[in-house]
Amino acid sequence: MTLRNKLLLAQVPLALALLLLGVLGVSTLGRLGRAGQEILADNYRSVLAMQRIIEHLERMDSAALFIVVDERRRGLELADAHLQPLEAELKVQENNITESGEAEATSQLRRAWARYRSAYEAFATAETPEARRSAYFDALAPAFREAKGATQVILALNQDSMVGKSDALRRQSRQVNTLMVLAVVAALVGGFLASASLTQRALRPVSVLSQAVQRLGQGDLATRAVVEGRDEIAQLARDFNGMAEALLQYRQSSLGELLQAQASSQAAIDSLPDPVVVFGLDGSVLNINHAAEEVLRLSLEGGGALGQVSPEVREVLERVRSHVLGGKGPYLPRGYEESVRLEGPDADRWLLPRGSPVYGEGGGVVGATVILQDVTRLRRFDELKNDLVATVAHEFRTPLTSLRMAIHLCLEEVAGPITPKQADLLFAAREDCERLQGIVDDLLDLSKLQSGRLKLEVRPVSTEEVLESALAPHRAVADERGVRLSSECGLELARVEADPERLQLVLSNLVANAVRHTSRGGEVVVRARHDGARVRFEVADTGEGIAPEHQQRIFEKFFRVPGANSGGAGLGLSIAQEIVQAHGGEIGLSSQPGQGSTFWFTLPGSAREEGQG
Ligand code: ADP
Known about the structure:
Elements: H1 3-68, H2 72-94, H3 102-125, H4 129-217, H5 232-270, E1 276-280, E2 285-288, H6 290-295, H7 311-325, E3 340-342, E4 349-359, E5 365-374, H8 376-411, H9 420-451, E6 459-462, H10 463-481, E7 484-489, E8 495-498, H11 500-516, E9 523-531, E10 534-541, H12 548-551, H13 572-582, E11 587-592, E12 596-604, H14 607-612
Parallel strand pairs: 7-9
Antiparallel strand pairs: 1-2, 1-5, 3-4, 4-5, 6-8, 9-10, 10-12, 11-12
Bound molecules: adenosine-5'-diphosphate.
Residues 509, 513-514, 517, 541, 543-544, 546, 554, 559-561, 564, 566-574, 597 line the site of adenosine-5'-diphosphate.
Subcellular location: Membrane
Pfam family, one: PAS_4
Protein name: histidine kinase
C-alpha cells in the first residue's frame, strides 16, 4: 500500500465516528419530533374540540335567552347555526379517545347533549312566553350546565395529559442532549485515538529512517534503516541504505589508501639514518623518525616536548626551528664548527643541523623539518685537515724566515756584489716570499681562530682611529692604481666593542680586496654608522663586482672567483668572517657585476659610549 493510501486509511475511524454520530442524531431527532406530533394528534385536537363545543353551547344559550325575551326568530336562527358544528365537533371527540377515563367522560357528554337537545325542542315549541321562560329555567339551563361541565372534564383531562407529556418530552430531550454530548466525545476520542495510532503506524518508518540518518551523520557508516513494505518510505530507506553502503566502501577504501600513504611516508623518514624532527607552526613536535627516537631519546608521547633532549641539542633544535618558522627560509649550516656534540655510550657524536620549511597548500610555511646530520667522521677529517694546515704553516715559517733573510742579505750584497740581472731575480723572489709569508700568516690566523685558540681582547675602540689606521697602509697602493680611497664616519659614533687589532685586520682585508678589484679612476669608500644598538661598517667599491653564483661561496676557505686577478689564497674573507662572528657580529655583501661591490659587517656598539651619549 502506498503512503498516501495509508494516510487516507488512518482518517477512516474519524469518518466512521462522524457517520455514527450523524445516524444517531437523525434518529433521535425523529423520535423527539414524533413525540411532539403525538401530543398534537392525541390531546390538542380534543382540547380544540372541547373549546369549540363550549363556544357553541354558550352561543346556543344566548340564542335561548333571545327566545325568552321574545326575539324568537333571531334566537332560532342563531341556535340553528351552532347545532350542526357542535354535532360535528362531538363526533371528532368521539373518534379521538386517547386517555383513560376519556371514554366515559365523552359518553357522559353525549348523554348531556341529548338531554339538552330534547329540552331545547320542548323549549322551542312552547307557545306562550311564560311556558318558554319556565321551560328555559326548569329544563334547558340545567341541561346546558351539565353539558358544559362534561365538556370541561374532557378538556381538563386532555390538558393534564398534555402537560404530563410535555414534561416527559422535556426530560427525554435533556437525556438525549446528554447522550449526544457523550456520544460526540466518545466518538471523537475513539476516532482520534484510532486515527492517531494508524497515522503513527504509517509514519513509524519515517522515524526509523530519520534515526538512521542521524547515526550516519554522527559517523556510524555501518548503520542501515530497516523498513519493510513497498511504499515510498520503504523505497527511500532502500535508497538510503544503498548510499550508506557506498559511503562505507568509499571510507574504507580512502582510509586504507590514506593509512598506506601515511605508513609509507613514515617508513621513508624512518629509513633515514639521521635524526629527523618535524615541528608544527606552534613549535610542537609533529613527527620524528626512528633515529630521532634512538639518538635523541625523543618521543611523541607527552605532547612531543623537547624536555628529554640534552640542553645543547635542544638549543640547536630551537634555534633552527625559530629560524625556519620565522620565515627566513631553509637553515643551512655555515660549517662543521656548527655541529653539536651529543654524548653517547661508546663515543661522542657530532650532529650538524639543517632545517627546511614545510609548505602548506596555500604556499605558506606550516611547519619545519630539522635534520641532524651525523658529521662525526667528516668533522674528524676537517679537524685533521685544519691540524695539517696549521702544522704545515707553522713548519713553513722558520725556513721562510731564513729564506727571506738570505734573499735580503744577498740583495744588500753582504755576500758579495751581484749583477743587475741577479738583483731583478732576487727582487722577484723577495716579492714571492712576502706573498708566501702572507698566506702562511693567514693560514695560521685562521687555524687559530677556528680552533678557538685565539682570544679576543675586546674593549671600546675609537671607530675613527680604527678606520684611519686600516686605510693608511693602502693609500699608497690606491694612489698607485689611480683609485680614490676615502672614509665617512658619523661623528656621533666614537666607539665600538672590539679587539682593535683583529678589527683592523678585517677592515684591511676588505679594503685591500676593494682596491685590488677596482680599476683606475674608480672609488673605494669606507663607512661606519649606527645600526640600532650595533655599528655597521661598509666597504664599497666601484669595481668589477661579483656574479651572484659566486656570492654564496665567497666567504669559504680557499675560494677564489675563477679567472679573477686575486692576490692571495682565498683566505682573506674567511678570516674576516671568523673574526666578525667571534665578536658576535654578522658579515655579508651586496654586489652587481660591473657596478661594484659593498661588503658590510656589524659589531656590538659600546655600552659605555651609549651611556655617556
Ligand atoms: P684572496 O685573499 O685570494 O683575495 P679573499 O677571500 O679575500 O681571497 O677573496 C676571495 C675572492 O673574492 C677573490 O678571489 C676575489 O676574486 C673575490 N673578491 C673579494 N673582494 C672582492 C671585491 N671587492 N670585488 C670583486 N671581487 C672580490
